[in-house]
Amino acid sequence: ILSESELVAFDHTAAGHDGISSNASGSLIIKPCTQAEIDFYESAKDHPLFQAHMPTFLGSLSQHDDQDAVAPLLESSQDGVVAPPHVDGITAQGAVTGTTPGLMRRVSWKPSGGKKIATGLAIVLENVVSGFKHPNVLDVKLGVRLWDDDAPLAKRRKLDEVTAKTTSGSLGFRLAGMKMWAGAGAGAEDAEVEVPPTEKEYVEVKNGYRSYNKYYGQSFSADSVVDAFTTYFGGIIQGKENGDAATKRVRFKRQRAEFLIRRFIRELESIQYVLENEESRMYSASVLMVYEGDPEALEISIAGEEEEDGRDGVDGGEGMLQDDDEDEEDDEEDTRPPKVHELRLIDFAHARWTPGEGPDQNAIKGIQSLLAILRDLVAKAE
Ligand code: ADP
Ligand code: MN
């Protein structure tokens, strides 16, 4: 029981601050956050179309001074639904009390550093990268303007400077960070993972993944940023190899990249539509893109989806928080195929609903630029 309830450091971040934890099964994350982010998630229920593009919100936690507080256990079922906690006396350091939409009351939370911990607040969210074997994660920060109304002048200047010298200024988005499965075979060491010379200064290899830091994303211009997406979707795909088998493999890789890009385009088109029909503002929010980075697992996922479609007729896009009793007892959940892709809006530390102020053109510009680049890539792949 304990191992199920313990929190572990969450390592599948593409960018941002340290200090995110996840539960043992990995279905949810706990992230230090601002009150504004909690407010935004709580009020998103009144904006269901927008909410559909956010991670599922499970609750918020505030740090408790009482060191001896009893923290009931946090447990979750496999598909990310939080089960009622097992109450079992555990003294937790920095115990946390939270209010959640019903199911979870209090959980133990071991702060693991990170700047935003100073708020003493944390948010419990669906872990968007769970359900992947080896997720390839990309964090795309939206907006030309990245600071909120209440930002001090020094912060505005600093962020405006970064905007001016990056694609944030020209395109309204920039890559904040990226983490890619390096596809190492069994037993391969990190040291054996190859990093192209041009990427060396930005990349750290760890546990079989290449992590690209924020300076990688800052190094692109409006014209060259397509290269970053080419890298994200599996490298420069040209039919240079010799022989029939090689040509076939190259063609297959290209088709898979195209398949994935089309999925992300579909999600982004939906987000664009939603943003155009909402009155909201978000500064320094991100689009989080994820796809299965293990080629074999990706094929299994795609085959699994097709099978699922065949069984259910039209894909129902099953909601993850329907009825938990049903979810827990449903054996089928255990055999659910791993995911192919995910795309969500995240990071609402500076986000709010702004009735009467019109759509968020600052964020829309980034989405449109992102769409244009992905559409170009698809056209090239054809
Ligand atoms: P900040 O940038 O303020 O530190 P973010 O909300 O952007 O906080 O989170 C930092 C990183 O954590 C993101 O780049 C992303 O990789 C990861 N992350 C955030 N929320 C989720 C989530 N719900 N599921 C999976 N990964 C997440
Ligand atoms: Mn962020």
Description:
The chain is of the alpha+beta class and 382 residues long. The protein has 2 domains: 125 residues, no CATH class; 247 residues, D-amino Acid Aminotransferase, Chain A, domain 1. The chain has 11 helices and 15 strands. The strands form 3 sheets. It has a 7-stranded antiparallel beta sheet, covered by helices on one side. A 6-stranded antiparallel beta sheet has the order 10-11-9-8-13-14. A two-stranded antiparallel ribbon has the order 12-15. The protein is globular. 36% of the residues are buried. Manganese (II) ion (MN) binds next to loops.
Briefly, what CATH class of the largest domain? Alpha Beta
How many DSSP H or I helices?
Answer: 11
CATH architecture of the largest domain, by name, is 2-Layer Sandwich
Model regions low in confidence, pLDDT < 50 over at least 5 residues: 66-97, 99-108, 112-117, 315-329
> Which hetero ligands occur in this complex?
adenosine-5'-diphosphate, manganese (II) ion
- CATH H-level superfamily title of the largest domain: Inositol polyphosphate kinase
Tally of individual domains: 2
Give the overall shape, derived from the CA principal axes.
globular
Strand tally, please? 15
- Placed side by side, the strands forming the largest sheet appear as 1-2-3-7-4-5-6
Largest sheet: 7 strands, antiparallel
How far the N terminus sits from the C terminus, by CA atoms, comes to 51 Å
Instruction: Average the pLDDT over all residues and give the rounded result.
Output: 82
